[in-house]
Structure formats: C-alpha cells, structure tokens
Sequence to fold (206 residues):
Amino acid sequence: MELFNGGTVDFGNGNLCINCHQSRPYEVPVIGSDSTAITSSRWGTHHGPQSALVFGLGGFEIAGSESYPEQGSGHASVIADGCITCHMAEAFGNSAGGHTFNMTYQYHGGTEPNVVSCTVCHAGAEDFNLNGSQDEILALLHELEDLLIQEGVLNPNSGLWNTGTYPTNVAGAALNYRFIEEDRSLGVHNYKYAKALLTNAIEAIQ
Fold:
C-alpha cells in the first residue's frame, strides 16, 4: 500500500483503512532552511493522518533530545491486520468494536475503553493511557500550542494558522502540532514518534 508521501507499507487487511486514513498531500518544510511560507489557514496535514503516524512518516524531524524510531511503531510491526485488529476487536454489543470501529462505549453514564485487543500484548491494561503516555502527549501538545500562539503562527480564537512566512523551525513545529492533534489517539498509534516530534519541536522554538 503506497502512502501519499511515497512510503510503501503493508498493514494486511488494514490497507483498506489506509486508503482514507492518511492525510492529504502536503510538503514537509526543509530542515536547515531559513524560512517557510504558511500559505493557508489549513496548511499542512489535517484530518486522518493515522496511518502515517503508525508508520512514523510525514513529520518535521528536527534533531533534539528525543530520537526518532528507525521503523514504525510496535503496532506497525506486530499487528498483522493493522487497524481492524484493534478497531474491530470483539464487540461490546453494538457500542464498540466489531463493525462500529469504536474504541470506547457508554456504560452506566460513563465512557469505557474497549481494551480487549490491547490486553493481548499489554496484560492488565484498563485504558489506553498506558504508564501515563496519553497524559504526556497531551501535556506536550498544550505546551507546543502555547509556543505557537506566542510565535504568532497559531490563531488562538480559530485554532487555524495565521498565513505568512516564519522561521522553518516554527513552521515545522506547527506541522507537528497539527499532525499529532489530528491523529486523535494522543500517541497510542505511535507514542515514540509522537513524543519525538513534539518534544524536539518545543526545544527548537525555545
């Protein structure tokens, strides 16, 4: 299965999902260049970049304290049928898993995670926030968001970009922010890549 950026991957029956759950074509800023133009309020990746994140592709990979995984996430290498292994796991009625694709369901007034597929590898998992990983990614997103607002690239009212020409590290950080935000898994799809993209972007701006 070929992703829009030229990467070729094989996610088994999950290849059907990848057809749509990859971002629209966009250009990653050139690392080392002085400036990059943000030409649209919706510049860069948005809406459904999940497959790119799983395989560790498409971010602005500036050097920093966090190293980028050489291959995709563990999910990319150990889950034979990709997306459907988790999102179509054993169904909880008609609320989660199965053909709903939902990873959560409502139960007695609360939202419950459908972790039936997770516990195959992560014994004892009760939710998706393993070892606080989702909390960590969310905190990094908030920190980077504040920096992008300070840099004038992110409009705090609309959540969209202010068009203009910015230092490349700022534009690349903006792309990483949108990439991880729009993935919506808070790092579940590829924790190491998400953490590296956000952490190194924060360091580059600071």
